[in-house]
Amino acid sequence: MAQEEINNQEEINNQEENNNQEETNKQEEVNTEETPVEETELDKIKGELSETKDKYIRLYSEFDNYRKRTSKEKIEIIANANERLIKELLPIIDDFERAKAAFDKTDNFQALKEGVDLIFAKFIKTLESQGLKPIEAKDLDFDVEKHESVTQFPAGDDKKGKVIEELEKGYYLNDKVIRYSKVVVGN
User: Is the pTM of this model over 0.85?
Assistant: First the structure.
């Protein structure tokens, strides 16, 4: 694509040079007496035009290379965007593997429950460090910006328009809702 544009530009420049040459020839016919000063000036202008054309082609190529490089970098950034999060989750996966191994070796379910609770707390802490926050819903006014009403139940006047029960927790990621809370609303 860039080569086509360069070729098109060269063709336009060649046409302009031909037109300029024709005009020069016409002027020569009118002025049969040309002085060496005019030829030197014409050569100087042609040299400047050639130099400008060369600079344009180099600049265009440089910009095209820049555009390709930034596109490639952008794709790479998107592909590796979650790398930091995944690295932080790997120790939690290790903890789960150790917990699974412990299930086979022990009958003390209270110790296993405490271990799973610790892993869960570590998991939540890791997600919170990445900007994840739960959306509070229970006993608050229903808000379409945060909640998704699954159903409505008749309730007293004090519960009308409020969230009675939260069926599925919603979450913010850096103050943007990434999942709405699924709730039951009082009617």
Answer: no
| Between 160 and 2, the higher pLDDT residue | 160
Q: What share of the chain is helix, strand, coil (3-state, %, to 5)?
A: 65, 15, 20
Residues 31-58 pLDDT 10s: 545 456 688 899 999 999 999 999 999 9
Are 141 and 164 in contact, with CB atoms under 8 Å apart? no
What H or E segment, with its residue span, contains residue 151? Answer: strand 147-153
Residues 54-105: tens digit of each pLDDT: 999 999 999 999 999 999 999 888 878 778 888 888 989 898 888 888 887 8
Strand partners, 183: 149, 166
